Amino acid sequence: MRVVRRFQGCAALACALAFVAVAGAQDSALPSWNEGDAKRRIVEFVRAVSDSKGKDFVAPADRVAVFDNDGTLWSEQPMYVQFVFMLDQLKKAAPQHPEWKSNPAFQALAAHDKAALAKLGQKPILELLGIANGGMTVGDYDKSIREWLKTARHPKYQRPYTELVYKPMQELLAYLRANGFRTFIVSGGSVEFMRPWAEAAYGIPPEQVVGSQQEVKFEMQDDKPVLTRGPKFDFIDDGPGKPVGIYRQIGKRPIAAFGNSDGDLQMLQVTTAGEGKRLALIVHHDDGQRESAYDRESHIGKLDKAWDEAKSKDWIVVSMKSDWKKVFVFEKEKP
Amino acid sequence: MRVVRRFQGCAALACALAFVAVAGAQDSALPSWNEGDAKRRIVEFVRAVSDSKGKDFVAPADRVAVFDNDGTLWSEQPMYVQFVFMLDQLKKAAPQHPEWKSNPAFQALAAHDKAALAKLGQKPILELLGIANGGMTVGDYDKSIREWLKTARHPKYQRPYTELVYKPMQELLAYLRANGFRTFIVSGGSVEFMRPWAEAAYGIPPEQVVGSQQEVKFEMQDDKPVLTRGPKFDFIDDGPGKPVGIYRQIGKRPIAAFGNSDGDLQMLQVTTAGEGKRLALIVHHDDGQRESAYDRESHIGKLDKAWDEAKSKDWIVVSMKSDWKKVFVFEKEKP
């Protein structure tokens, strides 16, 4: 078919041009990263798998990179952003649910009791949210998220949450894509909470967002086909759920994985268990001044087992404090 | 960031070149389609949504097209290909499962009793398969599919099943992509049965295959992280399940949908219920000579309610007999 052949010809030309441009500009990639081990190892990995004559070459179709979201691509302190949204939603819905007063998850949320929330885990809280927005059409739910994101502000930075994206990670995503990678989010959060802003913030389209899944069912309302939300979660994309989400939605083993907490451990394990060159990276939150300092003892984004495994397997551990010139996209460069 | 900016520059150049090439070659697109209403309406739709100055313009990010697989992109007669594979798998596994002798689904499969199979629906048969391959790692299951596809032959055409792809639909997929669309499969079949060959046959990568999902769980075996298959299906991507699968995995309402049976009705309804220009197309199997002739009374690929709706809503109904010059990719052109 002529159309296709001609188009492919153009695409090949573009690839060649892009390759020249990227190769030439390689050294200026990742400008918000300080020179050091982390940056050097990232660049070495990308060069190795992109070098068609090298022993570590990986075909572009297999260059799949997966990123955790909370704490890896944007801030998760003092509370997962989706939880802040949920709390607002639950507060709104509470008068219709007097039975919640005795629910431990609602009590912990209402009291901002992080220790209790951490003990409970994500499940009971996601279930409460499921009840709160059960029956809504997916369109109405999407609207409520977009509205909230417009007006909500982070308590510390007083900025919209969507500005709390890490500049160095944004650059890393773009750098990988410029080198033929496909980039995916794989998050414990709900897909619908990330999709409205992931494309603008990260360059990641909705179909490349993998996350937890609430029940959704098809029905006809006034002769119009709609999808409505059920009260339960069908799938929690966290911890051992992450490799399952990757298998279901991506269908390929990633060659690079990026996380920051124990919830990412299994995703990093599955990624590095594949044959050939692999990249595993953990963002360590050690910058209490520009962001937050937390790891083994944290209720949110606990980094304990995954840190031990990172050390024993020589995964890259990024120090936000010393590896990053900038942290947030809105931030000025370090003097 | 310089790398990215340069790369985007190249991409834009490629788009411009591709656009010129595509616009010039537009008239030679879809060479296996006869001139007629179906082809004309497809081309008109694609031009309308791609014309950045027209009232029907759709941004490339929203040009999502979804295709049913069985009976829409490849042959489904005399039996869904996945069922043939399953039958072979079940026969192999039967000695370990004497209890199946009294199972109606196994009896119907073993007797090739299409009427009984149609009555039972997909669910009990998928459940049997779930038991047969439960406990296997996803890697081993993938191997068994690839091995089978290499050796199995279609009873009528005596060719590998992967050659039973419809040439005009292959062209249509490429034509849409050349015009900025992203193309997805949305099938009642299992994702793992399509992914091994969908890229070569259709140009559709694994993450753009939406389908039914069997239970999968993460575990460590001999210190290696693996995913193993459970006995049940978590999700059946058929009928009202298709819009759910689209919502979960694609996260956007398609602007074009292509099917051939009642199992595609809800997908077509949801697609056409969106605002703006939409395309809904049904492949009608009316070519008993080159392929098979079946519709309202068929046990496989029954086209009844969706046909009525297509007529009342003026969706495109493609006659394989008169709209297609070629049917299969291996076939010579009609004299």
Question: Can you walk through the features of this model?
Answer:
With 335 residues, chain A is of the alpha/beta class. Chain A contains 13 helices and seven strands. Chain A has helices at residues 2-25, 37-50, 81-93, 104-110, 114-120, 123-133, 138-151, 167-178, 191-202, 241-249, 265-272, 305-313, 320-323; strands at 64-67, 182-190, 209-221, 224-235, 256-259, 279-284, 316-319. A seven-stranded mixed sheet of chain A has the order 4-3-2-1-5-6-7, sandwiched between helices. In chain A, strand 5 (256-259), helix 11 (265-272) and strand 6 (279-284) form a beta-alpha-beta unit. The N and C termini of chain A lie far apart (57 Å). The model of chain A is unreliable at 1-25 (pLDDT under 50). At the A-B interface, helix 1, helix 8, helix 9, strand 3 and strand 4 of A face helix 1, helix 8, helix 9, strand 3 and strand 4 of B.
